[in-house]
From TrEMBL:
Xref: SMART domains: REC
Protein name: Stage 0 sporulation protein A homolog
Sites of 4-aspartylphosphate modification: D54
InterPro entries in alphabetical order: Bact_response_regulator (IPR050595), CheY-like_superfamily (IPR011006), Sig_transdc_resp-reg_receiver (IPR001789)
Annotated ranges, domain Response regulatory: 5-120
């Protein structure tokens, strides 16, 4: 037996008893009600596949019942039991509530009654399968659309990555050549030349590790462990407000970490940690500011060739995602505009 339920409604108990007997062993569950009110209660408790109702009943007649059934359970197949004298009323009901079939009293169980019920159930199940198929098709279409959007985003990102790699590679080659020529010609310092080239190589290969670029949602709380280490070293951390750590940003977190880490490394190698203030503020996007409190350290750092190279390369990296890295010695400040999108 499957889960189809057929509700028979008639105020004549002997007819309902006859229906119960004839439907024993059929592949559906038989439910009976002697009036429209009880039938509606049954609908509130069950999923009814087919309703078969008499037309003439006290209080609520068959037409009134089927009108309510159409409202509360539009997928239920509606059928009518009627005598020949009720044909005009049946026709009116067919036109008003959409009756699938009507069975005239008296009926032949094997030739009329059971085949009519079977046909109604077949139609109901077919309708339900079609609805399920449509739902699955809609879900597949949604999934396909998401996949298409994802693939388009990958293609778009891939092209953007290719363009960015070209820019950074050109910068990499140019800096290495210029650095080599300058150091060899002016200083003849092979050890320094090797060190500077290593710095350029390290930054370049770190950048390549951020490819393919992936936009992800994150907030500053993911850096809590890093912040703790910085504070232990004596670096002062200032956040614009208590809620800034909870703001969710969308962007390439890996390249933001790369820029932040390398700026910290080059600044701490030239300045005492106690002279460094790291400030996080938010105005449309996330801004990271390094403030150097010691003027002498700042001046020495600004003349340091490693600092200049790192600043130059990281600025180009920031430009690949629409950001900017700037150095303002008059304000004792290095700023990173991350251009990260704020997620609502």
């Amino acid at each position: 037996m499957n889960n189809n339920k057929v509700l028979f409604v008639d105020d004549e108990v002997n007819i309902l008893n006859s229906i119960r007997r004839v439907t024993i062993g059929e592949e559906f569950e038989t439910i009976i009600a002697t009036n429209g009110e009880r039938a509606l209660e049954i609908f509130s408790e069950n999923e009814i596949s087919v309703i078969v109702t008499d037309m003439r009943m006290p209080k609520m007649n068959g037409l009134e019942l089927l009108e309510k059934v159409k409202e509360i359970s539009p997928n239920t197949i509606r059928m009518v039991l009627s005598g020949y004298a009720q044909i005009p009323q049946v026709i009116a009901t067919v036109n008003k509530v959409g009756v699938f079939k009507y069975i005239t009293k008296p009926w032949n169980n094997e030739e009329e009654f059971l085949p009519a019920i079977a046909e109604a159930l077949h139609y109901y199940n077919l309708q339900r399968e079609n609805d399920l198929f449509k739902s699955q098709l809609e879900e597949r279409n949604k999934l396909y659309k998401k996949m298409l959007e994802y693939n388009n985003a990958i293609v778009k990102n891939s092209q953007s990555d290719v363009d960015s790699i070209k820019i950074i590679t050109k910068k990499y080659v140019t800096l290495k050549n210029n650095c080599f020529k300058s150091l060899q010609f002016e200083h003849k310092n092979n050890e320094l030349s090797t060190y500077i080239n290593d710095v350029i190589d390290k930054l370049y290969f770190q950048y390549l590790e951020t490819i393919p670029s992936i936009k992800e949602s994150f907030n500053l709380s993911v850096f809590d462990e890093k912040f703790k280490v910085l504070e232990e070293k004596g670096i002062t951390l200032i956040f614009e407000n208590d809620s800034i750590k909870k703001i969710n940003y969308l962007g390439n977190k890996r390249i933001i970490v790369l820029v932040l880490d390398n700026m910290l490394n080059v600044i701490t190698s030239n300045c005492d940690s106690g002279d460094i203030i790291l400030n996080f503020s938010n105005s449309k996007t996330l801004n990271i500011n390094f403030l150097i409190r010691n003027k002498t350290s700042l001046e020495n750092m600004s003349n340091n060739i490693e600092f200049k190279l790192v600043l130059n390369i990281l600025d180009d990296m920031c430009k690949t995602f629409g950001g900017k890295l700037s150095f303002n010695p008059e304000k004792f400040q290095i700023s990173i505009d991350t251009n990260l999108q704020i997620q609502n």
